Amino acid sequence: MIKKEKAGRDIASVIAVTFYLVFYCILLQYKVTRDIALVMLGLAPFVLVWMVYTVLKHGKYNGPDLGNEEFGYQDKNKDELDLF
Q1: Which of 29, 32, 50, 61 has its CA 20 to 30 A from that of 71?
Q2: Own/partner pairs for 18-22, CB < 8 Å, 24+ apart?
Q3: Per-residue pLDDT for the chain (84 aa), expressed as one digit of tens each?
């Protein structure tokens, strides 16, 4: 039961921060709510750091393992890569 609760924390934090920033942008549009938006602007770095911490701690990577390779491209085959 505990593992199910932790499973969606990374996605939930990204959704919560997205709504926070959208709400901030909406409040910024009206002169009456600009003071609230300024407080939210001051709290935004803490909210973003919380989101990054949650994603790094609880997020899962489902891509291929790099092995001995330097770079990992999921959209191209290694033989298709050219020099820059």
Answers
A1: 50
A2: 20/44, 20/47
A3: 445 556 688 899 999 999 999 999 999 999 999 999 999 999 999 999 999 999 999 888 776 677 776 666 666 776 777 766
